[in-house]
Amino acid sequence: MRRIATPLLVGLSLLLAMAVAYGTVTADRAFVRLVAAGDEAALRGESAEALEAYSGALALLPEAVTPYLKRARLYQSTGQADLALRDLRRAADLDPLSTRPVEWLGDWHLTNDRAGRAVDYYGKATALEDRNARLFHKLAIAHLQAEQTDEALVAIDRALALEPASAEARYVKTLVLLARGSDREALSALEDLVSAQPGHTPTREALAAVSESLGDFRRAVDELSALSVLEPGRSSRAVAVALAMTQVGREADALDVLERARERFPADADVLTTLGHAWLVRAERTADRAALQKASMLMATATAQPSPSSVALSDWGRIRQLQGDLDGAAAALERAVATAPVAPEAYLRLATVRERRNESAAARGALEAYAALVGDRAPLVQVSLRLTELCLGLGDLPGARKWFDRAEAESAASPSPELDARLTSLRPRVVPAR
Q: For residue 308, is it left (φ>0), alpha (ψ between -120 and 50) or beta?
């Protein structure tokens, strides 16, 4: 009986092994088909179908890393960040020596404004692959976003040592230099980069910004003009050029740029607002009624559009004031200070209108709101003096003394005969002689 049982058991074992092997091969084939189906669906933009295919593949082989990574990217692209993070963590757990899951975890945290955690993951990735320039590039960006500029400089220098010709890495280095306050060094690096890649718009944007910060407005105009040529379909480029031209006194050129932009973008709110502002500035400077009429026409159109900006409403209020319509000016300026982000000058203009309407308390409120908004970013001597006078008129001696003291303290930084005379005339009213 034993002689018969042994061959029978061996045969049954072979049959079982064959069945298992067949099942494994079948599962592997199905797994491959499902992953391929998921890839095809993703290419077609059919996210739900792709997610279903990847999930089916994982049901067959739950220890496979690739479907987790593919599914994580889909989750991220469809706004399901938590599910994406779950899959990325699972992939990293399954293959702790693989760089990609750790790198993608860094990407996830950087995308979701968690720069400190991104630094940790990119650091792990560079430890796994210490000759990968891309990883050091990402590590530098994460350090930069985490305001760790020394570490960012080390990381980006390592990336450039591995790929010296990388324009993107060179650009990131200029951002690091700017963050460290090395504007001159950054300027030199940006100039070299623009020479190497004249069509790289972020570099020209940075070069324009640095030039402006260093007081070289003409260079800023040149770079912004080049950007306008490179991207003629963007109205914001023309607006930026015009604003920069205004700073260097090229008012006529700025108006010309904006008028041509208006022809290309007749309904663009920013173009209308900036052009209207330019004509308003000319009207205030020269008392030109024709310029004021042009400003009025443009700003009326700009503020009639849905959701006009605080800047547009503020200028419209100023135009109405110059035209003698104080009620219309007040209405526009009240809208301006209620529209975020608020243009600070709207409060100053509103205070002026309120004063002319003998609404002293409302004028004081507008000036105090302006002072609170600008804080220490702008000198407040003149505003403090106006508030001193308003408080005196309202019988608020403590308030008058507070604003007078501030005006006196700030006047020490930039004394002038006119300012001294005004302070002298107010002092007896604020600090009566004993």
A: beta
